[in-house]
Design a protein that fits this description.
single chain; elongated; Putative F0F1-ATPase subunit Ca2+/Mg2+ transporter; ATPase_put
Length: 76
């Protein structure tokens, strides 16, 4: 394997890791913010926040599964 291919593979893996990171953090933060705003509006302090954080965590792991499945298909 030449130097150019190693560099390309390293950048490819780096972009995959950063994509996974962003796709896991974004839904959790967004759902947490939505749950917090609903708690403020309806005065139900931790209820909506907990529900939406759990939904965000579920969405984050779904994104992780989709990205990893796509990445393994491309690598084969």
């Amino acid at each position: 394997m030449n130097k150019k291919n190693k560099w390309f593979d390293a950048l490819s893996y780096l972009s995959l890791v950063s994509q996974i990171g962003f796709s896991m953090v974004t839904p959790i933060l967004l759902c947490g913010w939505i749950g917090s705003k609903l708690d403020e509006k309806f005065n139900k302090e931790p209820l909506f926040f907990i529900i939406f954080i759990l939904l965000g965590i579920g969405a984050a792991f779904l994104n992780l599964f989709k990205i990893s499945a796509t990445a393994t298909k491309k690598r084969k």
